[in-house]
Design goal:
The chain has a single domain, classed as 3-Layer(aba) Sandwich (Aminopeptidase), CATH 3.40.630. The protein has four helices and five strands. The relative contact order is 0.15. This is N-acetyltransferase domain-containing protein.
Length: 156
């Protein structure tokens, strides 16, 4: 197994993997997520690949992508009662369903941690939806802690 930075040539394979997660989210929360085969449009993907604040890592086995993480280095601004700092925001971390529970997700997270430390981030943040209890348990096992809750009120 090989872990490497994604390239423009990984666009289709990465979107295929992202689609698995997108479909699960759209089924659980159709008011927030749509089912689309192209989760990240190509122009956005190009910007991420070429941007210095993004880190797209893929796990590859026998030439096939089986895992990914997409993280952005962000600056949290100071505000009323908040201090400013650098954070790594992990938008996606996923492993092909046939390869889950084999340590690939943990290894991807460890690589994100190394990148975040090298880039002087103080924390890694991510959003995980309450319905996705497998992901919540996974991130808890990695040592992540809940720091807030996103609340919603349906108007219609």
């Amino acid at each position: 197994m090989n872990f490497r930075k994604a390239t423009l040539g990984d666009f289709r394979a990465l979107n295929t993997l992202l689609f698995e997660s997108q479909r699960m989210h759209a089924n659980a929360l159709p008011e927030l997520f749509s089912i689309s085969r192209t989760v990240i449009p190509y122009p956005d993907y190009q910007t991420m690949i070429h941007g210095s604040n993004f880190h797209i890592l893929v796990a590859e086995e026998y030439g096939k992508l089986i895992g990914y993480s997409i993280t952005e280095l962000t600056a949290t601004s100071s505000g009323i009662g908040r201090s400013s700092s650098r954070a790594a925001y992990m938008y996606y971390l996923g492993v092909d369903t046939s390869h889950q529970k084999s340590g690939i997700g943990r290894k991807l997270f460890e690589e994100v941690k190394k990148w975040a430390i090298q880039n002087k981030a103080r924390t890694i943040h991510l959003n995980v939806w309450s319905f996705n209890q497998n992901a919540v348990a996974f991130y808890n096992r990695l040592g992540m802690k809940e720091i807030g809750k996103l609340m919603s009120y349906e108007l219609h």
